[in-house]
Amino acid sequence: MELNQLPATVLTRTISRPNTTIYYPQLAGLANQQAEKDINRAIHQTVQGLIHEQQRVQVPGNTQMQGSYEIKTNERGIFSVVLNNYAYTPQMAHGMTFLGSITADIQTGKLYTLRELFKPGSDYVKVISENIKRQIKERSIPTLNGFTSIKPDQDYYLADKALVIYFQLYEITPYYVGFPMFPISVYELEPLINEKGPLAILSAD
């Protein structure tokens, strides 16, 4: 794996219809065209999934919807992006936002679940959960029913040599807290990480 892999070229696409404007990224010019198709399809499916999630929670009415994205990593052949969807229907107490994220290898097109970042059989759920418990205490983050554990497929993204675990609104905290985000240094997780996966690539010298 070449560590000097050039960043992927990212184009912005738009879904535009009455009361709805959603911007999302599409990769272009990848050496592996199948990888490009696979990653772009996954991004588009995630965008559509966020739209459907909003339709599930919004009351009938004149719903306003906006979507955006933020690229968190685009180096060493690893691409990690967070997709944001905000919607509000008048008469509701407040708007609702959902996040989605994708982490992929731009050379192969492989999309990584949280589990796949780590060695098979490793106790990554426990290690990450204990780290989050510590951060909740240190940062005095209010929780709804206390925090016990992440899900094996918990939402995450990669940024600045860190794994960032995040939770949806209301998942573990009151709405006013926003999205609880928990960065964990790659180096803290080193004994557990998949040696051919994105964490190993990003932490290599």
TrEMBL record:
Pfam families: DUF3298, PdaC. Residues 21-97 form the Deacetylase PdaC domain. It comes from the Bacteria. Residues 116-185 form the DUF3298 domain. InterPro entries: DUF3298 (IPR021729), PdaC (IPR025303), PdaC/RsiV-like_sf (IPR037126). This is DUF3298/DUF4163 domain-containing protein. It comes from Brevibacillus fortis. The lineage of its organism: Bacteria, Bacillati, Bacillota, Bacilli, Bacillales.
